[in-house]
Amino acid sequence: MQYAQLRAFHAVAEHGGFSKAAQALSLTQPAISDHVRRLEQDFGVKLFDRGPRGVEPTELGRRLFSVTRQMLSCERDARQLLDSAGGLASGTLSLVADAPDLAVKLIGAFRRQYPGIVVTLSIANAAECMQRVLSSAVDAAITAAPQVHSRLESRVLRRDPLVAMVPATSPIAKKRRLTYAEFVREPVIFREAQSVTQQLLEIELVRQSLQVEPVMYVDGREALEEAIAQGMGVGVIASAEFNESRRIRMIPLQDCQVEMIESLTRLAERPASNLLNALFKTELD
Q1: Contact 36, 5 (CB under 8 A)
Q2: CATH of 159-260, one of 3.60.130.10, 3.40.50.140, 2.60.120.200, 3.40.190.10
Q3: Which CATH architecture has domain 1-78?
Q4: What would the pLDDT profile of 203-257 be if each residue is shown by its tens digit?
Q5: Count of beta carbons in the 10 Å neighbourhood of residue 136
Q6: For the stretch 206-237, what's the b/e string if a residue is b when 16 or more beta carbons lie within 10 angstroms of its beta carbon?
């Protein structure tokens, strides 16, 4: 049994598939599949049920996953302990983010101060970001997920109101501001339920006692922007996340009372790390 095989198994169990595991470990999918296959063959066991909907750990797989979770947590704690005893000339950090633009800005500012540090960044939705931090799969997360867990500590990086995105060809694109009542008269596109943006929009609609039948549900900000650009409807986004486009107009929502709060988050209970401490002190440009 090789350590690489256990890491590959853990990644497949954590991410729910071989392709996502390959992305998380920066390996090819055949390499991940080979590691898991060899692990199963060496011990004559079955760790995953493979079906049309993807892979699910077997009962033995679930038990092994609880062991590998502890193994990787101990590995990360050991590395952080050694990092804390040394300087900041070299080392690694693993991050996950639901806002790649903000994460890249923070990493850029950090690496200008500490160019010898190698940073690995993966992208996931807010719920997945929190799960990876709580399971010690990453060192820290940049996420808009509510910071409500007692095991976490965080630093607010950005606060932004919601704004409307409308097709540039729409008559309302000429407006300087919109109310929610005006917004919902248009065909509205919703994000996936796990999206913090979607959750904030629904809070606002309830506050305004507005009923909406969305014309479409999309998964991810890029899909939302493309659907709006093609004239299929309107949507919302945090103002700082808006990408300038000739096909989309951003219009402030004048009665918006919520903010998208993006935070840098880590486990409070883990050993102190010079690298993480330095990242938490890094100022955005």
Answers
A1: yes
A2: 3.40.190.10
A3: Orthogonal Bundle (1.10)
A4: 999 999 999 999 999 988 889 999 999 999 999 999 988 888 899 999 999 999 9
A5: 19
A6: eeeeeeeeeeeebeebeebbebbbeebbbbbb
